[in-house]
Amino acid sequence: MQAARGASLTTSDPATTTAPTRPRRARAIFGLVALAAYVADLASKQWALSALADRDIHAVGDLLVFHLTHNPGAAFSTGAEFTVVFSSLSIVAVLVVLWVVRKVGSPLWALALGLLLGGVGGNLTDRLVRDPGPMRGHVVDFLMLPHWPVFNIADMCINAAAVLIVVQTFRGMQVDGRRVEPHR
Asked: Which region ranges are annotated with the description Disordered (predicted)?
Protein backbone atom coordinates (compact mmCIF):
# COMPACT_ATOMS: atom_id res chain seq x y z
CA MET A 1 0.00 0.00 0.00
CA GLN A 2 2.80 2.44 0.94
CA ALA A 3 4.69 1.71 -2.30
CA ALA A 4 1.54 2.34 -4.34
CA ARG A 5 0.92 5.64 -2.56
CA GLY A 6 4.53 6.79 -3.15
CA ALA A 7 4.37 5.73 -6.78
CA SER A 8 1.32 7.89 -7.40
CA LEU A 9 3.28 10.99 -6.48
CA THR A 10 6.16 10.37 -8.85
CA THR A 11 6.55 12.51 -11.92
CA SER A 12 6.94 9.58 -14.29
CA ASP A 13 3.17 9.02 -14.41
CA PRO A 14 1.79 11.19 -17.25
CA ALA A 15 -1.57 11.48 -15.52
CA THR A 16 -0.02 13.36 -12.57
CA THR A 17 2.21 15.80 -14.41
CA THR A 18 2.02 18.68 -16.83
CA ALA A 19 4.40 19.20 -19.71
CA PRO A 20 7.60 21.08 -18.86
CA THR A 21 8.30 24.49 -20.34
CA ARG A 22 11.03 24.64 -22.94
CA PRO A 23 14.37 24.37 -21.10
CA ARG A 24 16.20 26.72 -23.48
CA ARG A 25 13.83 29.59 -22.68
CA ALA A 26 14.03 28.88 -18.95
CA ARG A 27 17.84 28.80 -19.02
CA ALA A 28 17.84 32.12 -20.90
CA ILE A 29 15.65 33.63 -18.19
CA PHE A 30 17.98 32.20 -15.55
CA GLY A 31 21.08 33.63 -17.22
CA LEU A 32 19.61 37.09 -17.80
CA VAL A 33 18.22 37.35 -14.27
CA ALA A 34 21.46 36.10 -12.67
CA LEU A 35 23.55 38.54 -14.69
CA ALA A 36 21.19 41.48 -14.04
CA ALA A 37 21.07 40.77 -10.29
CA TYR A 38 24.84 40.37 -10.06
CA VAL A 39 25.57 43.56 -12.03
CA ALA A 40 22.94 45.56 -10.11
CA ASP A 41 24.45 44.42 -6.82
CA LEU A 42 28.04 45.21 -7.79
CA ALA A 43 27.11 48.57 -9.34
CA SER A 44 25.04 49.62 -6.32
CA LYS A 45 27.88 48.68 -3.97
CA GLN A 46 30.36 50.68 -6.04
CA TRP A 47 27.99 53.65 -5.88
CA ALA A 48 27.63 53.22 -2.11
CA LEU A 49 31.41 53.12 -1.63
CA SER A 50 31.85 56.40 -3.47
CA ALA A 51 28.71 58.30 -2.45
CA LEU A 52 28.43 57.22 1.18
CA ALA A 53 32.06 57.25 2.29
CA ASP A 54 31.58 60.30 4.52
CA ARG A 55 27.83 60.73 4.91
CA ASP A 56 24.42 59.10 5.05
CA ILE A 57 21.67 59.95 2.59
CA HIS A 58 18.10 60.04 3.86
CA ALA A 59 16.22 58.88 0.77
CA VAL A 60 12.78 58.68 2.39
CA GLY A 61 13.15 60.43 5.73
CA ASP A 62 14.13 57.84 8.33
CA LEU A 63 12.23 55.09 6.49
CA LEU A 64 15.04 54.46 3.98
CA VAL A 65 18.55 55.66 4.70
CA PHE A 66 21.61 54.92 2.60
CA HIS A 67 24.21 54.10 5.26
CA LEU A 68 27.51 52.42 4.36
CA THR A 69 28.68 49.48 6.44
CA HIS A 70 31.18 46.68 5.90
CA ASN A 71 29.73 43.46 7.27
CA PRO A 72 32.04 40.54 8.12
CA GLY A 73 29.16 38.28 9.21
CA ALA A 74 25.53 37.58 8.49
CA ALA A 75 22.48 39.71 9.35
CA PHE A 76 23.11 42.13 12.25
CA SER A 77 26.81 41.24 11.77
CA THR A 78 26.25 37.99 13.65
CA GLY A 79 28.89 35.35 13.15
CA ALA A 80 31.61 37.86 12.28
CA GLU A 81 34.22 35.29 13.31
CA PHE A 82 32.82 32.81 10.75
CA THR A 83 33.46 34.81 7.56
CA VAL A 84 35.46 31.96 6.00
CA VAL A 85 32.56 29.58 6.73
CA PHE A 86 30.09 31.99 5.06
CA SER A 87 32.42 32.25 2.07
CA SER A 88 32.68 28.46 1.81
CA LEU A 89 28.91 28.02 2.10
CA SER A 90 28.45 30.65 -0.63
CA ILE A 91 30.76 28.72 -2.95
CA VAL A 92 28.78 25.55 -2.28
CA ALA A 93 25.51 27.42 -2.92
CA VAL A 94 26.78 28.71 -6.28
CA LEU A 95 27.81 25.19 -7.29
CA VAL A 96 24.45 23.72 -6.21
CA VAL A 97 22.51 26.36 -8.18
CA LEU A 98 24.64 25.68 -11.27
CA TRP A 99 23.98 21.94 -10.85
CA VAL A 100 20.21 22.35 -10.38
CA VAL A 101 19.78 24.81 -13.24
CA ARG A 102 20.74 22.09 -15.72
CA LYS A 103 17.20 20.74 -15.26
CA VAL A 104 15.31 24.05 -15.19
CA GLY A 105 12.20 24.15 -17.35
CA SER A 106 9.95 26.46 -15.34
CA PRO A 107 10.18 30.24 -15.83
CA LEU A 108 9.49 30.90 -12.14
CA TRP A 109 12.15 28.41 -11.06
CA ALA A 110 14.51 30.07 -13.55
CA LEU A 111 13.72 33.45 -12.02
CA ALA A 112 14.26 32.13 -8.48
CA LEU A 113 17.53 30.39 -9.32
CA GLY A 114 18.77 33.44 -11.25
CA LEU A 115 18.04 35.74 -8.32
CA LEU A 116 19.71 33.28 -5.96
CA LEU A 117 22.85 32.97 -8.08
CA GLY A 118 23.10 36.73 -8.65
CA GLY A 119 22.63 37.49 -4.95
CA VAL A 120 24.93 34.82 -3.58
CA GLY A 121 27.48 35.67 -6.26
CA GLY A 122 27.39 39.37 -5.38
CA ASN A 123 28.05 38.80 -1.69
CA LEU A 124 30.60 36.09 -2.46
CA THR A 125 32.49 38.53 -4.68
CA ASP A 126 32.77 40.90 -1.70
CA ARG A 127 34.03 38.08 0.51
CA LEU A 128 36.65 37.15 -2.09
CA VAL A 129 37.97 40.58 -3.11
CA ARG A 130 37.40 43.05 -0.28
CA ASP A 131 39.48 43.71 2.83
CA PRO A 132 40.74 42.09 4.95
CA GLY A 133 41.44 39.48 2.26
CA PRO A 134 40.21 36.50 0.23
CA MET A 135 37.49 34.41 1.92
CA ARG A 136 37.48 36.94 4.80
CA GLY A 137 36.29 40.03 2.93
CA HIS A 138 33.54 42.16 4.37
CA VAL A 139 30.27 42.56 2.46
CA VAL A 140 29.24 46.10 1.51
CA ASP A 141 25.79 46.90 2.91
CA PHE A 142 24.09 50.26 2.53
CA LEU A 143 20.28 50.04 2.65
CA MET A 144 18.89 50.79 6.11
CA LEU A 145 15.29 50.47 7.25
CA PRO A 146 14.08 51.08 10.81
CA HIS A 147 14.54 48.06 13.11
CA TRP A 148 16.20 45.99 10.38
CA PRO A 149 19.82 45.09 9.64
CA VAL A 150 21.58 47.09 6.95
CA PHE A 151 21.44 45.13 3.68
CA ASN A 152 22.17 45.30 -0.04
CA ILE A 153 20.72 44.34 -3.43
CA ALA A 154 22.21 40.83 -3.16
CA ASP A 155 20.35 40.26 0.10
CA MET A 156 17.09 41.36 -1.52
CA CYS A 157 17.68 38.94 -4.41
CA ILE A 158 18.41 36.05 -2.05
CA ASN A 159 15.24 36.71 -0.04
CA ALA A 160 13.08 37.08 -3.16
CA ALA A 161 14.53 33.80 -4.44
CA ALA A 162 13.69 32.08 -1.15
CA VAL A 163 10.08 33.27 -1.37
CA LEU A 164 9.76 32.06 -4.99
CA ILE A 165 11.28 28.68 -4.12
CA VAL A 166 8.82 28.21 -1.26
CA VAL A 167 5.88 29.25 -3.47
CA GLN A 168 6.92 26.89 -6.27
CA THR A 169 7.40 24.05 -3.81
CA PHE A 170 3.95 24.55 -2.26
CA ARG A 171 2.43 24.74 -5.75
CA GLY A 172 3.97 21.36 -6.52
CA MET A 173 6.08 22.77 -9.34
CA GLN A 174 9.32 20.97 -9.94
CA VAL A 175 12.44 22.65 -11.31
CA ASP A 176 11.88 21.03 -14.72
CA GLY A 177 8.42 22.58 -14.97
CA ARG A 178 6.35 19.52 -14.19
CA ARG A 179 3.60 19.73 -11.59
CA VAL A 180 3.13 16.92 -9.15
CA GLU A 181 -0.57 16.47 -8.43
CA PRO A 182 -1.41 15.07 -5.01
CA HIS A 183 -2.96 11.62 -4.86
CA ARG A 184 -6.68 11.79 -4.10
From this structure: 1-21
What phi, psi does 88 have (nearest 5°)?
-65, -45
φ/ψ (deg, to 5) at 56? -95, 155
pLDDT at 18 over 70: no
Assess if residue 14 is contained within a domain. no
3-state secondary structure of 181: coil
Instruction: Single out the catalytic residue among 56, 126, 131, 155.
Output: 155
Domain assignment of residue 182, yes or no: no
Domain that holds residue 96: 22-171
Q: Is 62 a catalytic residue?
A: no
Structural domains counted in the chain: 1
Counting Cβ atoms within 10 Å, is residue 70 exposed (0-12), middle (13-18) or buried (19+)? middle
- Does residue 148 form part of some domain? yes
Full-model pTM = 0.86
Question: Out of 56, 62, 141, 176, which one is annotated catalytic?
Answer: 141
